[in-house]
Design brief:
339 residues; alpha/beta; 10-stranded mixed beta sheet; 10 helices; 10 strands
Length: 339
C-alpha cells in the first residue's frame, strides 16, 4: 500500500497527551512501522502538552515516516483527531490509540475494505491486555467497551455496522468532506467525563450526509489495547458506564433516539440478558466469577441508564453542548506551538 494505491495510501493518526505513556507511544509507532502494508505516514498529535511535544519532536526528528503535531483545536481527543485529519496526505485515515499496538496485517485488512467505493469506514477488533495478566473473574465480556475493547455481542467477521469504534478505525477522506470532523465537547478530554461516543455521532452524521455509505467492521484488523490496573477495578467500571450514559444522551439529543440508540436496544434486550443468564449458570455450577459477572452486568445497565437519564435532562434544559467543525478550518502546528 503506497501513495500509488487506488485510495491514495493510508495515514495513521495517533493522539497522545501524557508522558506517562511514553513507552506505549513508542510501541504504537513501532507496530505501525512493522505493517505488512506500509502506512504512507504516521501522525502523532500532542494534546496541549508542550513537554511531550518537544520530547517527541526530538525522538522523531530524523524520521521521514513520522510527523509530530500540536493539537490545533481545544483540548480533547476529537480536536486532536481533526488536527491529524487536516494535515494528513492519505486517501484513508486510520486511528490507533496511544496505548495499543496493531497486528502486522492491520492496515492491509483496512485497505481491502475500501476496494468497494461505497465503503466510507472500516473498523477492527480490539483485544484487551490486562495489567494483571488475565481478565478479572467478575468482569463481563459484554462490557469490554468500558476498557475500549471489542465486546461480546458485536457481530463477528466482516460485517456492516452502524458505527465503528474510535480506537481502532479508519475512514475514507471523503467521509470528512461529506460530514465534517469529530464533534468537540462530546468525547475524551484526558480523564474527564464524558468519555466517549464521538465516533458513534460521527458515523450517524456520515450516513445521513451519504445515505449510500457503507460502514464495516473487519475483525481480522486486530489491535491489542493496554488496560491499566486502575481500570480493572469495579469503581472504574461504574464510573465509565455512567459516563457512557451521559455521552449517549448527548448523541441521542443530536441525532434522535431512533438512530442514537438503535444498536443499544438490541444489546440491552438480547446480549445482556444472555450474559446475566450465563453468569447465574456459572454460579450454580460453582464456576469462578459467575455471580460477579451477573451482578456487574446489572450494575452496569443501571449505572449507564442513570447517566443517560441525567444527560437527557441536561440536554433538554441546555441543548447539545458539542460542535462539529469543518476539517478545512483546522490548522495544525507541526513540531511546536501554533505558527
Amino acid at each position: 500500500m503506497s501513495a500509488h494505491a487506488p485510495h491514495g495510501g493510508v495515514s495513521v493518526v495517533i493522539c497522545v497527551y501524557t508522558e506517562d505513556r511514553w513507552e506505549d507511544i513508542l510501541a504504537a509507532v513501532s507496530s505501525v512501522r512493522a505493517q505488512s502494508a506500509p502506512a504512507l505516514e504516521t501522525l502523532l498529535v500532542v494534546d496541549h502538552n508542550p513537554a511531550l511535544l518537544e520530547r517527541l519532536g526530538k525522538e522523531f526528528k530524523e524520521s521521514d515516516d513520522v510527523r509530530v503535531l500540536a493539537n490545533a483545536g481545544p483540548r480533547g481527543l476529537s480536536a486532536g483527531r481533526n488536527t491529524g485529519i487536516a494535515v494528513s496526505r492519505g486517501g484513508i485515515i486510520a486511528f490507533l490509540d496511544d496505548d495499543a499496538v496493531a497486528e502486522r496485517d492491520w492496515l492491509r485488512h483496512f485497505a481491502a475494505g475500501y476496494e468497494d467505493p461505497l465503503v466510507m469506514a472500516v473498523g477492527g477488533r480490539t483485544e484487551p491486555i490486562w495489567a494483571s495478566g488475565r481478565r478479572p473473574a467478575w468482569f463481563p465480556e459484554e462490557f469490554d467497551w468500558v476498557v475500549g475493547c471489542t465486546y461480546k455481542g458485536l457481530p463477528r467477521g466482516k460485517v456492516r455496522v452502524r458505527n465503528v469504534l474510535g480506537g481502532n478505525a479508519s475512514f475514507r477522506r471523503s467521509a470528512f468532506d461529506a460530514a465534517g470532523g469529530f464533534a468537540t465537547g462530546i468525547g475524551r478530554d484526558g480523564d474527564k467525563r464524558p468519555l466517549g461516543c464521538e465516533e458513534t455521532e460521527l458515523c450517524i452524521r456520515l450516513t445521513r450526509a451519504r445515505p449510500d455509505a457503507v460502514l464495516l467492521i473487519d475483525d481480522r484488523a486486530v489491535i491489542h489495547h493496554r488496560v491499566p490496573a486502575g481500570r480493572e477495578r469495579f469503581a472504574y467500571f461504574r464510573t465509565r458506564a455512567y459516563a457512557e450514559g451521559l455521552s449517549k444522551a448527548l448523541v441521542a439529543q443530536s441525532v434522535g433516539a431512533d438512530k442514537g440508540l438503535e444498536s443499544e436496544r438490541r444489546y440491552a434486550t438480547r446480549v445482556l440478558p444472555a450474559g446475566v443468564a450465563r453468569g447465574v449458570r456459572d454460579f450454580v455450577l460453582a464456576r469462578p466469577g459467575g455471580a460477579g459477572r451477573a451482578g456487574a452486568i446489572v450494575a452496569g445497565v443501571l449505572t449507564t441508564a442513570g447517566g443517560y437519564a441525567l444527560g437527557s435532562f441536561r440536554a433538554r434544559r441546555m441543548g447539545a453542548t458539542f460542535s462539529v467543525v469543518e476539517i478545512g478550518d483546522a490548522r495544525a502546528a507541526e513540531g511546536g506551538g501554533p505558527s
